[in-house]
């Protein structure tokens, strides 16, 4: 019988872009422009932030995995005295450090991939990981490292469908390529259950934070679709007609340390 973790891996592997499309691309489609991961001036309340705050002691510490600018950590401003950021891009970590400094929060940053550098990273009261799990095929070591680094609680936020689902129609339009619909948060819950972790799931609706129609956003979408520069006009016209939604279904998954 296939385990939940094996199913998670198989469903993520189905999102691989066919080799013949990748080979002709001018630029790697696996881009993460730092600007879209900067945090807003006012961070809105959300179930994910609420669950982290609920478990955070006064003057506590937070470990933010795949931190970007640190929205998962700095939503807890006022209750934390220390923020620890892990990311594989130095630009993201620079933003995280600047955001901590501007809030007078002590911080440390770690460049690399989780869980490869887990031994270098200190334990925190609460571990948060936002919009990372759909990039993690080998999910069990990742989750074990999250769990071992939390004193109080682990909080995960992911979309209810793969983040690239918003462009599934564009893949069909430009490449006649059908994209998958799995995995989902319930697949991740099945993994946690098999690991003996008593996790909780809350489904909710959140705003789409990325820029909708700027030239930079259109060019990023062109790159992600493996299309040449000459196709930027076609991409722009497609997304003007087929706009990204202004909100998206999200999921918060959390568990407490016993």
UniProtKB/TrEMBL annotation:
<protein>
    <submittedName>
        <fullName>Unannotated protein</fullName>
    </submittedName>
</protein>
<dbReference type="InterPro" id="IPR029063">
    <property type="entry name" value="SAM-dependent_MTases_sf"/>
</dbReference>
<dbReference type="Pfam" id="PF13489">
    <property type="entry name" value="Methyltransf_23"/>
</dbReference>
């Amino acid at each position: 019988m296939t385990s939940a973790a094996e199913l998670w891996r198989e469903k993520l592997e189905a999102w691989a872009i066919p080799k013949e499309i990748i080979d002709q691309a001018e630029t790697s489609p696996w881009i993460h422009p730092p600007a879209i991961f900067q945090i807003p001036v006012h961070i809105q309340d959300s179930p994910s932030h609420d669950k982290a705050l609920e478990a955070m002691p006064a003057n506590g510490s937070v470990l933010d995995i795949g931190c970007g600018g640190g929205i998962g950590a700095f939503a807890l401003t006022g209750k934390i005295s220390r923020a620890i950021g892990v990311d594989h891009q130095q630009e993201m970590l620079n933003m995280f450090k600047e955001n901590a400094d501007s809030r007078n929060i002590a911080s440390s940053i770690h460049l690399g991939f989780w869980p490869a550098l887990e031994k270098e990273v200190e334990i925190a009261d609460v571990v948060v990981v936002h919009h990372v799990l759909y990039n993690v095929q080998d999910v069990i070591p990742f989750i074990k490292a999250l769990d071992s680094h939390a004193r109080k609680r682990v909080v995960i936020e992911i979309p209810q469908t793969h983040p690239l689902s918003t462009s599934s129609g564009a893949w069909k339009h430009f490449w006649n390529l059908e994209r998958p619909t799995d995995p989902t948060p319930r697949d991740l819950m099945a993994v946690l259950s098999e690991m003996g972790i008593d996790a909780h799931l809350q489904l909710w609706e959140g705003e789409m934070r990325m820029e909708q129609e700027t030239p930079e956003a259109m060019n990023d979408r062109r790159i992600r679709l493996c299309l040449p520069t000459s196709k930027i006009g076609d991409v722009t016209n497609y997304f003007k007609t087929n706009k990204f939604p202004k909100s998206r279904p999200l999921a918060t998954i959390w568990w407490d340390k016993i």
